[in-house]
């Protein structure tokens, strides 16, 4: 039998509690197989989480890490998941993921924890790649060759900061670069020009950074933030190479009771919010907008997808969930792919494939609580996604850029930077 090779059989799974970039505990999983085959993965954590995400088990004991400990999830790995997976072949990803889904038995991985399951799932993939002597992106796909355009989150707001900017992320998108490396050089120029502008206009505290390493200036108005960013792009001489993107994360400024959106201090109807977006798209070269309406506001998303003429990305709206993608495919046109939202690598790959079949763009994304594990860079190239969103600066973000730089040089002439074809790089 194909999956009978002793060398690939899982011998040991060890999980431990480590810290993410917010100093909160999270899980690291090691998977061992056969003769020295090893794979490790860290589990990221979101703050602006969608309601339909896979469940994250936290201990709740306030005396330890304020209740955020992950010891129970780790016990679930050691006592329930590991015994079931021992002797399975690390290359048999789908069966391993299915076994964990079955063991859990709940629709949102509430029993064993989405955080426990995704950690094991990703570490299994790393171990399989190790056993095959391949980098993970190549193990995932023999035709992996597309380097993504990075959506660089240079002005942070919403839940990622303590300023009063309602949009969560205001980003540059260097689609006019020729290579991923050039996108980083452009990114450096703009980031540093923006630092000068913000500190001279708003004082030195304005260049403190938010959770994703972008600046968190005391700005309330999206247009004011954009004017500063556009100026930074102009000063650095890259206007012809850059378009812009937002994560509105509108769930967080939606008032359920009033059924209105409170943006920049004003309550707005769906139509008024759409008008606000239309004005933005008219005023700046905006190419992408994520979660422009609340996570269940199908009517709002439908208007955005139909009337804005740009990429409308579903994050909380789709939760990387193949079922939601099928149901909501008419109301947006791109997937924000976060593997811990759905909870296994197999389901993540399903979500990607389903999205491509719906003619969607795919943006692979970090969480605001990341570790130094760059695994999502490999996943991005492995599915030829064309777009990645991994914040701005700080090592848990640059770890992903560094891995992409490494992959780009490893691929050499075979590497293709998605550039202006970020929605469909082929
Ligand atoms: P999260 O935020 O990781 O806190 O969910 C990122 C996003 O909304 O895209
Ligand atoms: Zn988002």
Uncertain segments are none
Task: Kindly state the percentage of residues in helix.
Answer: 25-40%
Largest sheet: 9 strands, mixed
Count of DSSP-assigned helices: 13
Number of strands: 17
- Assembly category: single chain
CATH topology of the largest domain: TIM Barrel
The CATH superfamily of the largest domain bears the name Enolase-like C-terminal domain
* Tally of domains: 2
Going by CATH, the architecture of the largest domain would be Alpha-Beta Barrel
Tell me the fraction of residues in β-strands, as a range.
Answer: 15-25%
Listing every helix as H and every strand as E from the N terminus to the C terminus, the arrangement reads: EEEHHHHEEEEHHEEEEHEHEHEHHEHEHE
The structure class reads: alpha/beta
Termini separation (Å)? 36 Å
Q: Whole-number average pLDDT?
A: 97
List the strand order in the largest sheet.
Answer: 5-16-15-14-13-12-8-7-6
What does this structure look like?
This protein has helices at residues 71-85, 93-104, 114-132, 136-140, 180-202, 222-235, 270-283, 298-307, 322-328, 339-342, 345-357, 375-382, 395-411, and strands at 10-19, 25-33, 37-42, 146-147, 149-150, 152-156, 169-173, 243-247, 254-255, 260-263, 266-268, 286-290, 311-314, 334-337, 361-365, 386-389, 416-417. The protein has 426 residues and is of the alpha/beta class. It folds into two domains: 6-133, Enolase-like, N-terminal domain (Enolase-like, domain 1, 2-Layer Sandwich), CATH 3.30.390; 146-421, Alpha-Beta Barrel (TIM Barrel), CATH 3.20.20. Helix 1 packs across helix 2. It is globular, with a radius of gyration of 21 Å. It starts with 9 loop residues before the first strand and ends in a 9-residue tail after the last strand. Zinc ion binds at residues 247, 249, 290-291, 315. 2-phosphoglycolic acid (PGA) binds next to loops.
């Amino acid at each position: 039998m194909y999956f009978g090779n002793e060398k690939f059989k899982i011998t040991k799974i060890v999980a431990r509690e480590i810290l993410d970039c917010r100093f909160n505990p999270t899980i690291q999983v090691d998977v061992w197989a056969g003769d020295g085959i090893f794979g490790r993965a860290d589990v990221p954590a979101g703050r602006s989480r969608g309601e339909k995400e896979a469940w994250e088990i936290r201990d709740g004991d306030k005396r330890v890490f304020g209740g955020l400990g992950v010891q129970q999830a780790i016990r679930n790995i050691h006592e329930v998941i590991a015994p079931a997976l021992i002797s399975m072949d690390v290359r048999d990803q789908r069966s391993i993921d299915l076994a964990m889904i079955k063991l859990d038995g709940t629709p949102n991985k509430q029993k064993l924890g989405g955080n426990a399951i995704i950690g094991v799932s990703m570490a299994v993939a790393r171990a399989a790649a190790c056993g095959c002597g391949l980098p993970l992106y190549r193990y995932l796909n023999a035709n992996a060759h597309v380097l993504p355009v990075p959506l660089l989150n240079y002005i942070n707001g919403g839940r990622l900061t303590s300023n009063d900017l309602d949009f969560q992320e205001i980003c540059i998108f260097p689609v006019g670069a020729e290579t991923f490396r050039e996108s980083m050089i452009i990114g450096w120029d703009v980031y540093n020009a923006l630092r000068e502008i913000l500190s001279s206009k708003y004082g030195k505290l304005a260049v403190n950074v938010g959770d994703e390493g972008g600046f968190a200036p005391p700005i309330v108005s999206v247009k004011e933030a954009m004017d500063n960013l556009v100026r930074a792009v102009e000063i650095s001489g890259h206007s012809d190479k850059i378009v812009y993107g937002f994560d509105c994360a509108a769930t967080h400024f939606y008032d359920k009771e009033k059924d209105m959106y409170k943006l920049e201090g004003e309550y707005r109807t769906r139509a008024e919010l759409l008008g606000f977006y239309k004005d933005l798209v008219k005023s700046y070269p905006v190419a992408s907008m994520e979660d422009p309406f609340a996570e269940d506001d199908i009517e709002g998303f439908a208007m955005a997808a139909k009337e804005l003429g740009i990429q409308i990305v579903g994050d909380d709206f789709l939760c990387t969930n193949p079922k939601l993608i099928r149901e909501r495919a008419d109301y947006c046109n791109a997937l924000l792919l976060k593997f811990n939202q759905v909870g296994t690598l197999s389901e993540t790959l399903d979500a990607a494939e389903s999205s491509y079949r719906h003619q969607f763009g795919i943006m692979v994304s970090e969480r605001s609580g990341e570790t130094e594990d760059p695994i999502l860079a490999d996943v991005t190239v492995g599915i030829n996604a064309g777009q990645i969103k991994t914040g701005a600066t700080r090592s848990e973000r640059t770890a992903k850029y560094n891995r992409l730089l490494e992959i780009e040089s490893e691929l050499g002439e075979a590497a293709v930077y998605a550039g202006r074809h970020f929605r469909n790089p082929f």
